[in-house]
């Protein structure tokens, strides 16, 4: 299975991915943040975004070749916007894919960005794009299941994701054997 997480900068995609890694082990966390350090690189250039999908596909192939079957991948909003065009890079492995959009209001998002360990210039850039990123996130296709994370910590978000995935798998497979049962959601945070 592949779980994708998307949403605005600072919403908790990376922290939730780490929590999923802990709660649903064994799982592989494939992060795309390293592309921000590639120069030149632009999320507005289709070939650059496609190169991220190509790299993810190569990493999935490697890990699947070594027995991994469960993955979490945080997607930037730009990757989510172009998912329909690049979906074959993830779908080619035949694993079930579950897409989630983490969301919270602009005020909560600003608070989260201010708490991040960032240099002041980067923090200001992230704060400047919050309203636009919230709008982009809200306009994503329905395939990205929304989860309001305003009042949740990353473990609670991860448990919510796992509960939704479990429910969707049970409904879709109706008795078909799963690769392994998912961790059951626990009460509280």
Layout: helices, strands, pairs:
Layout: E1 2-6, H1 13-23, E2 28-29, H2 46-65, E3 71-74, H3 77-81, H4 83-86, H5 88-91, E4 97-103, H6 106-115, H7 120-138, E5 145-148, H8 154-173
Parallel strand pairs: 1-3, 1-4, 2-3, 4-5
Helix pairs in contact: 1-8, 6-7
Structure description:
The longest helix has 20 residues, at 46-65. Residues 176-189 have low confidence and may be disordered. It is globular and about 45 Å long. It has a single domain, classed as P-loop containing nucleotide triphosphate hydrolases (Rossmann fold), CATH 3.40.50. It has a five-stranded parallel β-sheet with strand order 2-3-1-4-5, with helices on both faces. The protein is α/β, with parallel strands linked by helices. It has helices spanning 13-23, 46-65, 77-81, 83-86, 88-91, 106-115, 120-138, 154-173; strands at residues 2-6, 28-29, 71-74, 97-103, 145-148. Strand 2 (28-29), helix 2 (46-65) and strand 3 form a beta-alpha-beta unit.
Give me the secondary-structure category: alpha/beta
The rough form would be described as globular
* CATH-defined architecture: 3-Layer(aba) Sandwich
Describe the strand arrangement of the main beta sheet, using strand numbers: 2-3-1-4-5
Total of helices? 8
Largest sheet: 5 strands, parallel
Q: Are there runs of 5+ residues with pLDDT below 50, and where? A: 176-189
Domain count, please report it. 1
Multimeric organization: single chain
Radius of gyration: 16 Å
């Amino acid at each position: 299975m592949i779980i994708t997480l998307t949403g605005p900068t600072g919403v908790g995609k990376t922290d939730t991915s780490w929590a999923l890694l802990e709660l649903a082990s064994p799982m592989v966390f494939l992060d795309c943040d390293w592309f921000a350090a590639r120069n030149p690189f632009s999320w507005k250039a289709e070939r650059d975004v496609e190169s991220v999908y190509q790299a993810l596909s190569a990493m999935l192939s490697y890990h699947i070749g070594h027995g991994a079957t469960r993955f979490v991948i945080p997607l930037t909003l730009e990757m989510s916007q172009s998912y329909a065009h690049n979906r074959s890079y993830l779908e080619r492995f035949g694993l079930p894919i579950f897409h989630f959009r983490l969301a919270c209001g602009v005020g909560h998002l600003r608070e989260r960005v201010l708490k991040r360990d960032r240099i002041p210039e980067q923090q200001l850039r992230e704060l400047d794009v919050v309203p636009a990123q919230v709008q982009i996130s809200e306009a994503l296709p329905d395939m990205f299941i929304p989860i309001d994370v305003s009042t949740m910590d990353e473990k609670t978000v991860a448990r919510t994701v796992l509960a939704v995935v479990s429910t969707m798998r049970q409904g879709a497979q109706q008795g078909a054997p799963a690769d392994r049962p998912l961790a059951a959601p626990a009460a509280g945070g």
